[in-house]
Every structure is written in structure tokens, then in C-alpha cells.
Amino acid sequence: MAASGAVLGFEEYVRSRQDALLRSARRLVPDPIDAQDLVQTALVRTYPRWDGIADKTLADAYMRRVMINTRTEWWRSRKLDEVPTGELPERSVDDGAEQRADREMLRDVLTVLAPKQRQVVVLRHYGQLTTEETARVLGMSTGTVKSTLHRALARLRHELEHGSYGYSRPEVEEEAMCAA
Questions:
Q1: Which of 31-35, 56-60, 172-176 has the lowest mean pLDDT?
Q2: pLDDT, position 4
Q3: Which of 21, 32, 88, 115 is the most exposed place for a label (fewest CB within 10 A)?
Q4: Is the confidence at residue 70, as pLDDT, over 60?
């Protein structure tokens, strides 16, 4: 009976604190997927010791320490891809060409979207507005913004994966800029 109470206590803790734990993990590792993995690993390592945490108000501190230790273990165990060589490679010059090419490709692929979809994508991802702010700016409901964004991103993913998008046309590009 006590064991099920401990399980419920841990499950309740995870449900109530998972967002805060994920934010802490995001400060430790740059990749969002790695942050999710870090939280999951920390939870797996903490669960067997949950009953040993006498003061549950200190559980967040315990979890952060587990995440820091786990991240340190990952860092120490990483495989280094350095290979000693007798000759130094030529230095590459970052002239920004790749970044400009990526922007141009993104501008090109955005042209496949309907104007409203393009507006939602630009406001949410480029303008970094929340769903509610985007809805207010466009005069839509938040549900419409979410569904429009979902369909638009699915379409963009498909176009990028299959390379079936065309090069930008000035009139479409002008439309996209007005939409932003």
C-alpha cells in the first residue's frame, strides 16, 4: 500500500513539475530533444530513490543536481572526432553564403503556402508571437491559428523533403513580404 502511495507521489510530482524541469534542462543543453532526454534520464534515475527524499520540497534541487551530473557524464563520454594529421587543412571563410542560400530556399518554399498560412508561419516563427498574439493580430481564433500552423508546417515539411517547391517569383515574394 505504501509503495503505491510513493508511486502516486512521484507521478504527481512529474505531472506538476515537468515543464519547470524541461526549462531547467534547456538551460543545460542547447538541443530541445537532448533536453527532453535529459529530463527523462533524470526521472529514471530519481524514481528508485524517491522514497529517500525526506523533504519533497527539495525534489527540484535534487532533480537539477541529477540533470547536471547526467549532462556532465554525457559530456565526458562523448566521442572526439579529432584525428591527428601532419598537414593543416585550409581555413574556410564563412562568407554567409550558406545562410543566404537557406533564407532564399525558405522564402522560395513559403510561396507554396496560402497567404493566411504564410502569415501565421511568419508571425509565429519569424515574429516569435504566441498563438494568442498571432490570433489577435490576424483576427482569428487561437484554434484556427493552431490548425492553420499545423497544416502549413506539414506542407512545408513535405515540400522541403521532396524538393518540389519552385523558385521565387517577384509577385509572390512581394505578397509574402506584405503578409509579414
A1: 172-176
A2: 56
A3: 88
A4: yes
The predicted model gives 144-151 an average pLDDT of 94
Q: Which stretches within the chain are classed as H helix?
A: 2-28, 32-46, 59-77, 97-110, 115-121, 131-138, 142-162, 170-179
20 with 56, same domain: the answer is: yes
> CA-to-CA distance for 8 and 33, rounded, in angstroms?
27
Answer yes or no: do 72 and 114 share one domain. Answer: no
pTM: 0.42
Cα(17)–Cα(13) distance, integer angstroms: 6
Residue 8 is part of a domain; what is its CATH number? Answer: 1.10.1740.10
- Decide which of 77, 108, 125 is a domain's last residue: 77
8, 72: one domain? yes
Same domain for 125 and 155?
Answer: yes
